Amino acid sequence: xIKACLFDLDGVIVDTAKYHFLAWKRLADELGINFTxxxxxxxxxxxxxxxxxxxxxxxxxxLSEEDFNSFMTKKNDWYLEYVDxxxxxxxxxxxxxxxxxxxxxxVKVALGSASKNAMRILNLLNIxxxxxxxxxxxxxxxxxPDPEVFxxxxxxxxxxxxxxxxxxxxxxxxxxxxxxxxxxxxxxEEEALGKANIVVPGFANFSVEDLKKALA
Length: 216
Ligand code: B16
Ligand code: MG
Known about the structure:
This protein is of the alpha/beta class. The protein has helices at about 15-30, 35-40, 50-60, 65-85, 95-105, 120-125, 150-155, 170-180, 190-195, 210-215, and strands spanning about 5, 110, 135, 165-170, 185, 200.
């Protein structure tokens, strides 16, 4: 049985990944580091601190602690400029119907995101009330693929890992779910998410009934 569904945010509920990329790209340019969309794949699901470390590794650069922190602030300010313009219509296709169907069936819904901006984004999209629990970058210490974020989601919804299904667009997130003993639906392409129980392109043609059948 499925008693709780745990949703990643970026890339699953909304395509904020493109805004993360634009902000990191701008920062990399300022640092004189070449940064491509391919490189950006490595940043998905990864914390802000680790993301900047990866970019610096790409460019073979190091920064003082002070500069590191000011570049992180800069990136986030730029990211929020994009995010704050988001409207409800940027919720990815099918997501709202899926959330409503889960509510109707009494399945618990939780957020499991690495982002420290998660609450702000849920509020902007007007979907905060769908969530029985919100676990985000402000409440976890270990980054995906560590299962902490999802284990906390299970705990907060009063369910066991075996009763949870995780929805993830990032390889690190799929691994986090598996490490937590949960079933996982990959959102995106089979190539990167092959370890998931099933992979679907999104929620547009995927119902709660389809989910149950696929995991039965
Ligand atoms: P912030 P998710 C993750 O969110 C993003 O995938 C990742 O690209 C980002 O660096 C991370 O959140 C931290 O976000 O800078 O907003 O705290 O996919 O786990 O929902
Ligand atoms: Mg994600």
